[in-house]
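SAMPLE LOG
Freezer: B-3
Tube label: C17
Construct: single chain, 295 aa
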Amino acid sequence: LQNKLLILIVSSTLFPALVVMAIAFSNYGRIVENNSGQIMQLMCSEKRQVIDEKLMNIEQSVHTIYHFVMEQIEDTENMWQDGEKFDKHIASVNALMKTIAKYTDRAVSVYYRLSPDMQEGKHGVWLMKDVNGEFIECEMTDISQYDKDDVEHVGWYYIPASNKEETWINPYFNQNMGEEIISYVIPVIIEGELIGVVGMDISTSVLYENTKAVTVYDTGYAFLMDSEGGFVYHPEMEGDMDTTEFDTQHAYLYEKSLLSAARKSVEDYRWNGIDKKLTTQKLRNGMIFTVCVVE
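STRUCTURE (predicted):
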C-alpha cells in the first residue's frame, strides 16, 4: 500500500511537471522561430534601404537635370526656331549633365534626347563614361532606325515616353553601349506635348554587389528579381552550379516572394529539394529583394 501511495504521489507530481516542460519547449521553439524570422526581416529591411538610397541618389540626379531643362524651355522664347538660343540651351544642359553624372555612383551615361517630332537635326546630347572615368559627348542614337519595341536599343526612350511619367527600366543589355544597365528616365512634356526625355543609365553592378554581400546565419543569402520576376542575381547563377531549378520553379519562387512582400511575412518554400524560409521587400524601382535561409 505504501509503495502504491508513493507511486501515486510521484506520478501526480511528475506528470504536471512534464506537461509544463513540454509547453515550455514548445513555446521556446516558437520564440526561436519568431526571433529568427524577425532577424531575417530586419536584415532584409536594412539591405533594402542601402540599395534604395543608391537608387534615390540616381533619381535626384535626373530630377535636377529635368528641372533645369524645364526652366530653360519655359524661360526662353522661340528657342526651337532660334538656332543660337537652342545651341546655348544644349551647351548649358551638357555642362550640368557632365557635372552631375561625374558625382553619381555607377553612372555610365546621361542624356537629354529630343523627340523625333521636333525640328529636324535637333537631337539633344548624350554623354557616356570613358575608360578614364570622364563623361564625353557621343553621337546620339538615331531612334527612328529602330522599332519602338526594341528595348535593347531604344527602350530607354519609348518606355517612359509611352508611360508619360518618370520610369525605372528593368535591367537590360544596352546594345548601344555593350553593357547591362538599369535606366531612370523622365519624359519632358509641356502642354501635353512630348518634347523629349532626360535620363541616366547605371551599371547593374550596384545591384549585384549589394545583393551578393548579404549573409544570414551560416546558410542564408539574398537574391534579386526584376519587377516582372526575372532573376537579376542569385548565388546559384554563378559558376557551375545546377540551375535546373530556375527553369522549373521560377514562377513558384516569384509568387512566394510577392506573397511575402504583400504580407510582410516570412514564408516557407522548397528549393532544390531543401526546405527554406524567405522574406521579401520591394525596392523603390519595383524590383524584388529577398533574403532566405535553410530551415
